[in-house]
Write a structure and sequence with these properties.
About 65% of the residues lie in helices and about 0% in strands. The chain is mostly helical. It is elongated, with a radius of gyration of 22 Å. The protein starts with a helix and ends in a 21-residue tail after the last helix.
Length: about 220
């Protein structure tokens, strides 16, 4: 067990933080949703019913959408954009291991590398493609949940329901998206620029403490 946690400690810790956070979101989201329902003349819902409401789906997937969007763009932009002095940038001298062509003779190389052909061509871009796919899926589910929540509120207020075609141009949906996107882009900008001048000993996301400010890469 000690060896398992040592080998997977970072992912396990963030998975546990995610689970604790989503439990908190569900608990307080249920209270908030039911408060709004009662105030608008509706009925409170159970925990299991809440998990299928637009309120929960919209709130969850608008956040996932922005996370996957910024990660996909960050991975992609770092292929060809650089920032002098940042630990998050490739080096200017072209010595980054990430630019090295895959070698199928390397021991324990991933099987697509050994297979070659179209499998290798896809695998070489699999991280960006996966993040983009997760973004697209989250975006669609966010849209579905936001529309469902909007129509639930419209029904309680006696207003006509909106179609998907009408709602795609609704300011509420795009406000939900952009308010999350801007925070994600700001956080990436912060780590890129702060890592030029600031250090964290022991973290692979930081340059060595004694590294010059203009040294680029981890």
């Amino acid at each position: 067990m000690k060896a398992f946690f040592r080998n997977n400690g970072l992912s396990i810790t963030f998975l546990l933080l995610f689970l604790a956070s989503i439990i908190g979101q569900v608990a307080f989201g249920l209270q908030e949703h039911n408060k709004e329902q009662v105030e608008d003349g509706g009925a409170a819902v159970s925990l299991t019913d809440y998990l299928t409401t637009g309120h929960f789906i919209q709130a969850t997937f608008e956040n996932w959408e922005s996370e996957f969007f910024q990660m996909a763009l960050f991975v992609w932009f770092t292929i060809f954009l650089m920032q002098k002095g940042s630990s998050e940038s490739k080096r200017f001298d072209g010595t980054d291991e990430s630019d090295r062509e895959p070698d199928p003779t390397v021991e324990d190389a991933p099987w697509p590398v050994k297979k070659g052909g179209w499998l290798l061509a896809v695998y070489k871009h699999s991280l960006t493609l996966s993040l983009l796919l997760l973004f697209i899926v989250s975006f669609i589910i966010h849209f579905y949940g936001s529309l469902a929540d909007e129509n639930e509120q419209n029904a309680l207020k006696g207003k006509p329901l909106e179609t998907a075609g009408e709602y795609i141009a609704d300011s509420r949906f795009w406000f939900e998206s952009f308010q999350n996107w801007q925070s994600e882009f700001l956080s990436v900008f912060a780590i890129i620029t702060l890592s030029i001048y600031l250090r964290q000993q022991g973290s692979p996301q930081s340059k060595p403490v004694d590294a010059p400010h203009d040294e680029t890469g981890e």
